[in-house]
Design a protein that fits this description.
The protein is of the alpha+beta class. The protein has one domain (3-150): Sufe protein. Chain: A, CATH 3.90.1010. The chain is built from four helices and four strands. It has helices at residues 3-19, 67-80, 85-99, 125-142; strands at 32-38, 43-52, 55-64, 149-150. The protein has a four-stranded mixed sheet with strand order 3-2-1-4, with helices on one face. A hairpin with a 2-residue loop joins strand 2 and strand 3. Helix 1 packs across helix 2 (67-80) and helix 3 runs antiparallel to helix 4. The mean pLDDT is 89.
Amino acid sequence: MAADELRSLYQEIILEHNKNPRNFRTMEDSDVSVEGYNPLCGDHYTVYLKLEGDVVKDVSFKGSGCAISKASASVMSTMVKGRTKQEAEALFERFHDLVTGKPGQSASLDDLGSLAAFAGVSEFPARVKCASLAWHTLHGALENKQEAITTE
């Protein structure tokens, strides 16, 4: 697939997840809920987890933010559901490496699925915090943090 076609596909994924976010709801019976806030742009989400042992049985989020942050939260929620905490943490690390442009990530885009749509974010440093807010909040929830997560 040509670079322009790939960029277009990735744009479509981000726009679709922003317009129709998956798992966008308050989870009343969550085991853990953590707030995440990006003071730079005002993105603000709460991530909810329902755990069964070490497995993320359900995940949802609620709040508001830019298209990139909402799409990222939506993709994150679909990717970690059904995974162990360790697998979810590994996805967080891979996503963070991807959006921060850590060397070596481009070689593994094929196996990232929808996460690959955020590869271009590394070219826009101001947007990295938008894309990673929900992921940092998930990370806090997996560690059962009680305080709000901030990107600052």
